[in-house]
Automatic annotation (TrEMBL):
PROSITE patterns: ADH_SHORT. This is Dehydrogenase/reductase (SDR family) member 7Cb. Keywords: NAD, NADP, Oxidoreductase, Signal. One of its GO terms (biological process) is intracellular calcium ion homeostasis. Belongs to the short-chain dehydrogenases/reductases (SDR) family. It holds the Pfam family adh_short. CDD domains: 11beta-HSD1_like_SDR_c. InterPro entries: NAD(P)-bd_dom_sf, Sc_DH/Rdtase_CS, SDR_fam, SDR_family_member_7C.
Length: 313
């Protein structure tokens, strides 16, 4: 009887994998059908994640308003979407120039976004500016620019579309944030600060607008990885093997297509908070609350290790 069982086990694995695949496909199909005719705004639509979101929601029959800083790139995305889709099943996207670094233009941009269809059903705040540098090397001007793009811009746009959502007592606002909005990492001071600010703003907003039937979601992910993960280079004389291990675990980011699917699922299930991270960042989040001194010691050791490595190269 042992032989049939051994042969049956691979079959069970294959069947289980097939059922899981079909289940995910059904969920994806249902989520697409739920966004049909919905007015969906996507900021930084020409980025990797923005483009993948645009394709998913366009195929789902949403009325897209695509925002970006480059008109040429927006037009290219428009052509790509309209050429690949059935015009009887989809709507031609509307394009809006949006640059969060130019806060003086935000009032006009908000008016243009709302005027496209007179309302907004789903707002996806996807714009982000990243920076890696020691604190003492970052100027106040750069600090302000990062805060404009990562915090003031999304919060201002959310405030702008809020009146139409409140009047209709429905709507969904999604902040595609970063795990660093909940966990600060060395050499990312300005970036982490802006993401913390955005996280706090949308957490407050969620509680304030719940009575109007408006859903506010945040998706906290590790870095976006548009290519295959590259191995972390190890120096034979590195003294801190723990930081090397953590760096290796952190080197695997989130693929744009995977994150876009999660955005679609978040709209479908109306989840309020999503974390897309490997075990190491998740453990770090727990340590931040339960054993902060230990976490700070590990981060400090990692900084010393990186400085020593640079000196030895």
């Amino acid at each position: 009887m042992a032989l049939p069982f051994v042969m049956l086990l691979p079959l069970l694995i294959v069947v289980s994998a097939g059922v899981y695949y079909i289940y995910n496909e059904i969920l994806l199909f249902m989520s697409k059908s739920l966004v049909r005719n919905k007015v969906v705004v996507i900021t930084d639509a020409v980025s990797g994640v923005g483009t993948e979101c645009s394709r998913l929601f366009h195929k789902g029959g949403a009325r897209l308003i695509l925002c970006g800083t480059s008109w040429d790139k927006l037009e290219s995305l428009y052509d790509s979407l309209t050429n690949d889709a059935d015009p009887k099943e989809t709507f031609a996207p509307k394009l809006v120039l949006l640059d969060f670094s130019d806060m003086e233009s935000m009032e006009d941009v908000v008016a243009e976004v709302v005027d496209c269809y007179g309302c907004v059903d789903v707002l996806i705040c996807n714009s982000s500016m990243k920076l890696k540098a020691p604190v003492q090397n970052i100027s106040l001007e750069i600090d302000r620019n990062i805060m404009d793009i990562n915090y003031f811009g999304p919060s201002t746009l959310a405030k702008g579309v809020l009146p139409t959502m409140i009047s209709r007592r429905s709507g969904h606002i999604i902040l595609v944030n970063s795990i660093q909005g909940r966990l600060a990492v060395p050499f990312r001071s300005s970036y982490a600060a802006s993401k913390h600010a955005a996280q706090a703003f949308f957490d407050c907003l969620r509680a304030e607008v719940e009575e109007y039937g408006i859903v506010v979601s945040t998706i906290s992910h590790t870095f976006i990885n548009a290519c295959e993960p590259t191995p972390v280079k190890e120096a034979a004389s590195k003294p801190n093997s723990l930081s090397t291990f953590i760096a290796r675990q952190m080197s695997h980011g989130v693929r744009p297509s995977v994150l876009a699917n999660e955005v679609m699922q978040t709209v479908n299930r109306k989840r309020k908070e999503v974390t897309m991270a490997h075990p190491i960042p998740r453990v770090a989040l727990c340590l931040r609350s339960l054993l902060p001194s230990f976490l700070f010691a590990v981060l400090g050791a990692g900084v010393k290790d990186s400085v020593l490595s640079e000196q030895m190269q």
